[in-house]
Amino acid sequence: xxxxxxxxxxxxxxxxxxxxxxxxxxxxxxxxxxxxxxxxxxxxxxxxxxxxxxxxxxxxxxxxxxxxxxxxxxxxxxxxxxxxxxxxxxxxxxxxxxxxxxxxxxxxxxxxxxxxxxxxxxxxxxxxxxxxxxxxxxxxxxxxxxxxxxxxxxxxxxxxxxxxxxxxxxxxxxxxxxxxxxxxxxxxxxxxxxxxxxxx
Length: 200
Known about the structure:
Blueprint: H1 9-20, H2 25-41, H3 55-67, H4 73-80, H5 84-87, H6 92-99, H7 101-110, H8 120-135, H9 139-155, H10 169-185, H11 189-196
């Protein structure tokens, strides 16, 4: 069952801030800056559910820390900024300058390169290549991408049937079965089990 507060941005943000308070001052500062960048980079952007887009990277970070028990600061920062390159004016160079090479590497690892004015057909044709890259990448990159996808799968249940993206749900489930579950099976059993429930 999906969490009652799944679409409550303030609730999700408060949970993340509560976790950040448990970190060392240095790690808290880094993660807080990553959250700030996510909030700035995704301002005026919205999810298919109609909620502010930044709730997605926040929930992705929470999957890492709450459900997997991962407290790797590089991964937490990368999870908060994982969509910035595709959706904002931030670049990998910006992230590397402010957060270092490892966080930048992780963000780049889960970012799908795309060209200006990319068509839907081009996007679909590039997806298998990116999933192959993810499958062949290191464990941290795979975990980050799987947490991203898990949150997206959970969010499907909140997309209105009249929304323009609602018909894509069947395609997303097909991609889950073809590409994502094999990666999850070779990466983390808990994530595999959580993702498996969305394959029906």
